[in-house]
Amino acid sequence: MSLDYYAYEAKQFRNTWNCLYFGYFGTFEDTTKIPPMRFTDEPPEPVGGLKGGLQWPLHVFGKVAVRDSADRNRNMIFDRTRDNCQILTKEVCPSRAVLLIDPVTFEVDLKVKGCTESEDKHLSFLAVKISDMITLDSCLRKSAYTSKLSTLWFTLGIIVYSVEATISVRVSGGSWPDGLRAKFAAHTASIGSQELILLGSGNDKLPVSGDGTITLGRRVASVEVDEELNVCVKAWQGGEVTVHTEMSFKAKRAGRSGGSLDVGFSQLDVSVAWSLLSSDGD
Asked: How far does CA 158 lie from the centroid of its chain?
C-alpha cells in the first residue's frame, strides 16, 4: 500500500498545530472569531480528478479552511455536515479575507456520502502550506494536490494593497420567480476575469429570507485600494439567459457603498461594507 503523502502531512499538521498554538488560540477545531467588516465603521478563497470508482455527481460534505497568522484558527471556505451535502457535478467545481503575510495553510477534510455512513468515502484529506506569496503585482496562482480519491485544484488570488469587501444583496421590490436559476459573482480588474462565485442556485430555489436578504454562499472579497469591485447577477431558464447585469463600486478603506440593480421582475439592493484587513485577533 503506497503512502498517501498529503494525508500523512495533514495528520502531522494537526500534531504540530497543537504543539505550537493549543491554549493560545483555542483548540484545533476552532473556527476564526475575527469577523468581516471589522474596521468598516471604526477604521484602525474545485475537484479536479477522481479515482477509486467514484462517479459524478458527488454528494460531498466536510470542511475546507484556510489558516493565516491573524489568529491561526480556521477561516472556513466550505463547511457541510453529512445531512447537508453539496452536490458537485463535473462542471461545478471565507468568512473573512485571508491575510498573506506569513505562510497560510489550506486544510481539507472532505468525504463523499454513501448509502450508509459506513459506506462514506474519504474524498480528500490534506494540509498544504503556501509560502511563496511575495509579489509586487496582484496575480492568480494555481496548484493541484492529490490525496485519497481526488485531485483538488486551488486557485489563489493574491491582491496587493488590498481592503476587505463584505457584500450583501436584498430583494427590495418584486420577487424572484420560481424555477429561475441564478448566479451572483464578483470580480476585480487586478485578477482579470476570474470570478468569485457568491452564490450559484443551480436548480434550487433562491435562498431569500423574510426581509428579502439573499443568503450568499460567499460574501467576502479582497479588492486593491485603487480598484473597483464589480458585482454581477446572471439569471437563466433552460438554456436562455434572461438577465445579465452588474454594477461597480470604488474601493474604500472604511465605510459602506450601495446601489440598486433593476433585473426586470425585481429590484435588488447591493451593499458593500469596506474594511482594512485584520492583522491579529485583538
From this structure: 14
**Residue whose grid cell is 452588474:** 246
Q: How far apart are CA 205 and CA 12, in angstroms?
A: 42
Q: Answer for the pair 265, 175: CB distance below 8 angstroms, yes or no.
A: yes
Q: Are strands 181-188 and 162-174 parallel, antiparallel or unpaired?
A: unpaired
Burial letters for 205-233: b for 16+ Cβ neighbours within 10 Å, e otherwise? ebebeeebebebebbbbbbbeebebbbbb
Surface-to-core class of residue 66, CB atoms within 10 Å of its CB (0-12 exposed, 13-18 middle, 19+ buried) = buried
Task: Indicate the pTM of the whole model.
Answer: 0.67
Q: Could you give the CA distance from residue 50 to residue 198 in angstroms, rounded to a whole number?
A: 25
Strand partners, 272: 167, 257
- DSSP codes of every residue in 105-159: EEEEEEEE--SSGGG-EEEEEEEEEE-----SS-EEEEEEEEETTEEEEEEEEE-
Quote the CA–CA distance of 62 and 125 in Å, as a whole number: 10
Structural contact between residues 62 and 109, judged by C-beta atoms closer than 8 angstroms:
yes
pLDDT tens for each residue of 44-71: 534 556 777 777 778 889 988 888 777 8
